[in-house]
Amino acid sequence: MSTAAIIMMLIMIVIIWGGFIVSILRLPKE
Amino acid sequence: MSDSQTKRETFASRRAFMFAAIGSAVGLGNIWRFPYIAYENGGGAFIIPYLIALLTAGIPLLFLDYAIGHRYRGSPPLAFRRIARWMEPFGWWNVLANVIICIYYAVIIGWAASYTYYSLVGAWGADPQTFFFKDYLQMADGVDVGFSFVGKVLGPLIGVWLFTLLILSLGVQKGVARASSFFMPLLVAMFLVMVVIALTLPGAAKGLDALFTPDWSKLSNPSVWVAAYGQIFFSLSICFGIMITYSSYLKPKTDLSSTGLVVGFANCSFEVLAGIGVFAALGFMAMAAGKEVSEVASSGIGLAFIAFPTIINQAPFGPLIGLLFFGSLVFAGVTSMISIVEVIIAAVQDKLRFGRITATFIVCLPMAVVSALLFGTTTGLPVLDVMDKFINTYGIVAAGFLYVFALIVARKLPILRNHINAVSSFKIGVVWYVFVAATVGMLGYMLFQDTQTLLAKNYEDYPDWFLNRFGWGMAVSLIVVSLLLSLLPWRMESKFNPDAVHKGDHS
Fold first, then answer.
1. Using one digit for the tens of pLDDT, what is the confidence trace for B240-249?
2. Is B276 on the interface with A (CB under 8 A)?
3. Is there a contact between B198 and B282 (Cβ–Cβ < 8 Å)?
4. More confident residue, B53 or B7
5. CA-CA to A24 of 20 to 30 Å: which in B376, B417, B426, B465?
6. Taking CB atoms and an 8 Å cutoff, what residues of chain A touch B259?
7. With an 8 Å Cβ cutoff, is A14 touching chain B?
8. Least Cα separation, residue B126 to chain A (angstroms)
9. Interface ipTM
């Protein structure tokens, strides 16, 4: 894999999956 | 408290709702559409329009749908009627679009179910394309509508409808929520295993390289941005009426915006996972055939029923990959199918005050019959293709464009924003109005562009009579029938009107 592809894959994973994890952690108690 | 509030079913918890909403959003498109859209529209660079579309259109419209359903506590026709009587046809337009979608969606889930089994026995032999079109679908030559049934297609199709009927007859919590809470974790686990296996295949890096290498020049092309907005729009099930219906089953004090963020990001997380798995497998396929990834990359039916069987034929653990891939398609499809049919059942229940089981049978049985007559035959595929194209444009995009525009014109956005902020910890600012208005512009552009293309040339070169019947005719009928349905009287209509009760008090 090229360096550019690896970097873009990591950016996509960090932003999207990171956003998912943060949104779960920020959920207030029901 | 009004009658409608006390009797309406509810999800037992926010968690149950989230599983149902994520189950609805994660569908076939996440697995077989997103990877190719990302690859075709800039690869790694696609993250920019994709993220912007998610944050400026996907999540704002998700909030809008949640607010409509939660505040007005009804299926789309009832919720829109409670906003303003003249808006009721928009709700029926949503409902009828779901009728069309579920009658063809069921047959695709049936194909995937068949292929889950075929993966284990390698039923397609050395030529998956011939097997799919000739042996499995037994496609008739030319475009026609006939009633030569194909047992291998009809059987699973009926099975899908019976399963849907069973789940939905159990109700919102015992049926919809429980099924989603079971199938969604199972889907994620199965797909994760499939991705891990795909990543170990020789050539996987070549596939990922093709998917993620950024082509920044593509970002100056407007069609790439339209593709990103289209992907987010269809993938999140916004403007389908599904999220309006599901949020109407939430308890009054439920955090809408925080929940919406989880659902939005969960859906996109699954798409990224699907992209990695699908392109790792396509990289293997390209390497095994001595070709470039661009020569084997595909989407939709071609990816699932032709490319993947080819990969399964050649890969180590091929039958296991097939079981996990097609099983994932079935589970992703079933949870979405349940949400699509639920919109129709909820509307029938609201309008006619039928009980759950009666409404489920009244809705599911006729649709299952139509589904079997149109798609359980040798002539189903072209009908499916045309209906899918026209319903997405004139059932979803057009309805979404008009109802969001109508809400702006009727000055209902401030009420809905206040409602979200009154129940949510994550407060939305006035920038939400800008995003919603901008999304209307994008939907209008998509509608205009699609209409221009469809008018310039017969879609996929289908004959006029065929397009006039299943494309244009179907699209116009949807609007006419929506207007007629909104003229029918409501049975025991409740006087619930949140705008009157809470006028000037949204705290």
1. 999 999 999 9
2. yes
3. no
4. B53
5. B417
6. 27
7. no
8. 30
9. 0.97
